[in-house]
Amino acid sequence: MTAGAARAGDGRRPWTFYLLGALFAAYLLFLYGPMLVIYVLSFQGENGGVTFPMVGTSLTWFAQIFEPGQMANIPVAFGRSVALASVVSLLTVVFAVAAGLGFRRRFPGSGVVFYLAVASLVMPSLLVGFGIGLGFRFLGWDASLFTSALGAQLTWTLPFGLFAMFAVVNRFNRAWEEAATDLGASAWQRLRHVTLPILLPGIIGVAMGAFTLSYDEYARTTLTIGPLNTLPLEIYALISSATSPTLFAIGTLTTVGSFLIIGATLLWAMRLQRRRGTAAPHEG
Amino acid sequence: MNVRPFGSARPDGFGAVARVLPRLALPPLPAWAVSWLQVGPLAAILLLLFALPTLLFLVVSFFDYDRVGIYPAFLLDNYAELLTTPATLRVYVSSLKFAAIVWALTLVIGFGVAHFLVFHVRSPVLRTIFFLLCAIPFWTSGIIRTIAWIPFLGRNGAFNQMLMATGLTDRPLEFLLFSDFAVIITYVHLFTLLMIGPIANSLAKIDPALIEAARDAGASRWQTLVGVIIPLAKTGIALGSILVFTQVMGDYFVVKTMSGGQSASIVSLLSTEIQAMQYPPAAANAMVLVVFVAVMVGFMMRVVDVRKELVK
To answer: Is B67 contained in some domain?
Structure first.
C-alpha cells in the first residue's frame, strides 16, 4: 500500500509507462483492426463480395442470418450453442470449484489428477474428438450434442476451470474458515456463508470462461457432434461452401451482443457492490 | 413455494438443512477422503472422456485397415509408414517453426501488456475495462476472426490501401496474404490473450514492496525486471507458453485458410486421413503428435515447477 501511494504521490510517470502504454494501444489496434474491417464489410451492398471495394451499403447480410438458408440455419445453431455452453459452464463450475477446494490439501493421488488435467488441457483438440468419436463408434452409440459433444468440451473446460480455481483459491485466506468453525458453524454453513461468497467473483470468472470456451469451440466438437451443428460448425460449413458477407454480419452481431452483455453485467456488479457496501454494517 | 422444511421458521431452506445436518452427523471423514470426494467427479470425467479415448486410439494405431473397414491386429506398419514419409518431418519442422515464432511474439506482447495493466494502470475500474477490451474479441468465433484478416491483408485490402494512401509503397504488397506471414499474424491475433491472462495473474501476486525494495537497493529498472519481476512471474510465463505452444501444434484451420494451401500442419494431415476414414494411420499420427507434445510440455514443466507454484 505504502509503495503504491508513494508512487502515485510523486505523480510523474516513468518512461516505461509511455513505452508499454504505446504497446498496449498498438495491441488493441491490432486486435480490433481486422474486426473493424469486418464490421464495415458486413454492411456490404447486395452485389458486393467479401473483400473491398464496398458496392453500396445494405442490411441484406444481416437479414440473411435470420433466413433459414439451403445449407445453414444460423438462429437454430446459435440456440444449440448457447444451450450446450450453458450446460458445460454449469458442470464446469460445480466440478472445478469442488476440485479446486479439494486440492487445498495434499492427498494421495493428487499428482496423478493434476497431470491428468494438464494432459487433457494440452491434448490437441481434434484428437480428443477423434478419440471420443472412435469410442462411440465402437460402442455403437450415436454421437450427439449432449453426450459426445458435451463430453469432448468438458475435457477442455474442466482443466481450465481447475487451473483458474487454483489462482482463486491461492488468494483465499483460510483464517476465515477457521474463524467460522471457531464460532460454531457447521461444515455446510461454513461453505454456504463464508467460503462460497468470498470465492464468488472467481467462480463467476470460471463460469464465463467455460461458457466462452464452449461457445467458440469447433475442433473438439466437429467429430463428436453428430448430425446437428453448433454455431461454430455451421460457420465452418458456410466458409467451406461459399463465402458471403453473412459471416461478417454474424461477427458484427456477436460483438454488439458481447458489449451489451458485458455492459449489463458490469452495471449489475457495480450495483451489487454498492448495495453490499451499505448493507454490510447491518449484517455484522 | 412456501415450503418450510423441518418446521423451519425461516423460508431459508439452507439454514434448515444446516440445522438438521449435525443430527445426522457421521463420524468425520479423514481429510484425504474429503479431498477425493471433492476431486473425484472431475477425475472420473477426465479418465472416462480423455484418458480412455486416448488409450483407444493407441490401440487402433496398431490395427490393420482397408477401404472398407478396420481390423484388430498388432502391426507397426502405420508407424513405419508415418515415420519414413518425408512429409511427416516437413510438417513437424514447419509447425515447430510457427510455434517458436508465435511463442516469442506472444510472450513479448503478452508480458508487455500484462505488465502495463498490472503495474501502470492505477485505477481498478480502468484496469477491468482494459482487460475486458482485450477479452471481448474472443467472444467472436475464432473462425470469423481468422477470416477477418483476409479483407484486411488482401491485395485490395485495408492495409494495402492504407500503405498506398500514405505513399509508403506504390504497388500492393503481395506477401501479406496466403503466406507464412499471414499464418503468424493470425496466430498472434488469436493466442496472445492466452499469454496475457496467466502472466497478469502472476504479476498481480507480486508484492509491490519487493519492487520498491529492489529500487531502494539501487537496482535499475532492467535489473528489477530481470532479477525480481520475471522470476516471480515464471509460473504465468510457463503456463502461457504451454497454452500457446499446444494451440499452435493442434491447429489445422488457420494454416489451411491463411497459407492458401501452401503449408500443412500435423493436424490438417490427420484430419484428411480421418475424413478418408483411414483411422489406423490417423491414430498412429495422433499418437506420435501426443507423445511429441507431451515431451515438449514435460520439458517446459521441468524448467518451471508449475505444480509447486499453483497448488500450495
So the answer is: no
CA–CA gap between residue A202 and residue B236 (Å, rounded): 17
| Domain annotation covers residue B39 | no
Confidence of residue B218 (pLDDT cuts 50, 70, 90): confident
- Between B195 and A35, where is the model more confident? B195
Contact A38, B151 (CB under 8 A): yes
| Dist CA B39 CA B31 (whole Å) | 12
Q: Does A200 touch chain B (CB under 8 A)?
A: no
Residue B294 forms part of a structural domain: yes
User: Which residues are B71's β-sheet partners?
Assistant: B64
Instruction: Look up the CATH number of domain A73-242.
Output: 1.10.3720.10
Examine residue B72 and say whether the peptide bond preceding it is cis (omega within 30 degrees of 0): no
Interface A:B, Cβ pairs < 8 A: 299
Contact B32 A107 (CB under 8 A): yes
Task: State whether B201 and A114 contact (CB < 8 Å).
Answer: no
- Average pLDDT rounded to a whole number, residues B174-199: 89
pLDDT, tens digit (0-9, with 9 covering 90-100), for B14-45: 444 555 555 555 677 788 888 888 888 999 99
Helix orientation angle between B279-303 and B52-60, rounded to the nearest 10 degrees: 130
- Smallest Cα distance from A192 to chain B, Å: 8
Q: Which of A125, A127, A199 is nearest to A164 (CA)?
A: A199
Query: Does the pLDDT at position A216 exceed 70?
Result: yes
pLDDT in tens, B147-185: 888 888 877 777 888 888 887 777 777 777 888 888 999
Of residues B25 and A243, which shows the higher confidence score?
A243
In a domain, residue B32? The reply is no
Mean pLDDT of B288-297: 91
Residues in chain A with CB shorter than 8 Å from the CB of B127 are none
* CB contact (8 A) between residue A250 and residue B250: no
Chain A, 142 to 181: residues with Cβ < 8 Å from chain B are 151-152, 154-155, 158-159, 162-163, 166-167, 170-171
Q: Which residues contact A101 (CB under 8 A, 6 or more apart)?
A: A165, A169, A195, B38
Mean pLDDT calculated for residue range B287-308: 87
Residue-wise burial string across A94-111, b where 16 or more C-beta atoms lie within 10 A, e elsewhere: ebbbbbbbbbbeebeebe
CB-nearest to A122 from B53, B161, B242 is: B242
Residue in A closest to B137 by C-alpha: A255
Q: For the domain that residue B159 is a member of, what is the CATH number? A: 1.10.3720.10
Contact flag B42-A158 (C-beta cutoff 8 Å): yes
Domain count, chain B: 1
Minimal Cβ distance to B142: which of A171, A189, A216: A216
Q: Which domain holds residue B285?
A: 85-310
**Min Cα separation A224/chain B (Å):** 12
**Could you tell me the residue ranges of all domains in chain A?**
73-242
Reported pTM: 0.84
Query: Among A94-98, A126-130, A184-188, which is the least confidently predicted range?
Result: A184-188
**Residue B244 distance to chain A (closest CA, Å):** 10
Among residues B254, B121, B280, B277, which one has the least CA distance to residue B267? B254
- Shortest CA distance from B193: residue in chain A: A31
